[in-house]
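Entry 12.
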Amino acid sequence: MPSITFDVLINKTFADICTTEGLAPIARKYVLSLLNDFEEGEWRFERFLDYIWDNIALTALSKQERDDLIGQPRTMMRRAAKNLRLIDNDEVGKGSEIAEILLYGVMQDFYGALPVVPKIYHKQNVNDNAKGADSVHIVLSHDGKDFSLWFGEAKFYKTLSGNDLDTIVQSVLNSLDKDKIKKENSIITDLQDLDKFDMPDETRQNIKDMLNQDASIDHIKPKLHIPIMLLHQCGRTASATEISQKYKEILERKHIKKANEYFKKQIDALSGQVFKYEEISFHLILFPVPDKDEIVRLFMADAAIYRRAK
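Predicted 3D structure (tokens):
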């Protein structure tokens, strides 16, 4: 498995940490919890934002553009920044692109995924949300002969309240609508990006055949994975000065509690609504930060510089 820049706090199946008696179905559910580190008693904002900018091209530029700009990192970031929406007057959407970019980076670094649809790139205009899932990836098997399809959701919250979890559950439910799945499939097969990734020709054709508009989405469900990135402000992270054992224990308990709360809400809402729900895989990804407003401010300041650059 590829390596990830951040510390892995939790990487378990939900069944291993489920504390909600009688909750079902809990198979095909996973929890990943990631931590940024500290330096001289301060959470490393710069390191986190470097990771965002290092991965922005995965979602803001096409595969051809990324290939053409290899060796030109400044040009790549400038062009990527010009495709950002930079919604700064919407409290709900503010910072959403940061979570989306983080998800693209984690998908590549942790899951070894191919970013077959750069979602920020495929928006209608700079002030409009990219429609559909927040990320679209394909993960190939070790031998390259099989694949899984990943449609991601990404949110940046100031809290992880029950209402916040209800919102992401509804987003996941919406993303599993038959017409939306078929739309995402058509985008994948219509784009040339799929043809530019290194994979066996037979695998590429199998992907196109399975995602064909005439094919039933029922056959896709066992290959479908939904990564759910919850980037969130955390008071314990704001007051911490290092990744101590106590800090890790507190965050682990908190994230296990939130995972149980989230999956209970998801199962209650989706199990009776989504056909073959039990065959779909879900990956809850939790990432705590000390101050959402500060991260958004620093990110937008950097973006303004890159967007002005000639």
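Annotation: Residues 7-44+103-116+124-292 form one domain. The radius of gyration is 19 Å.
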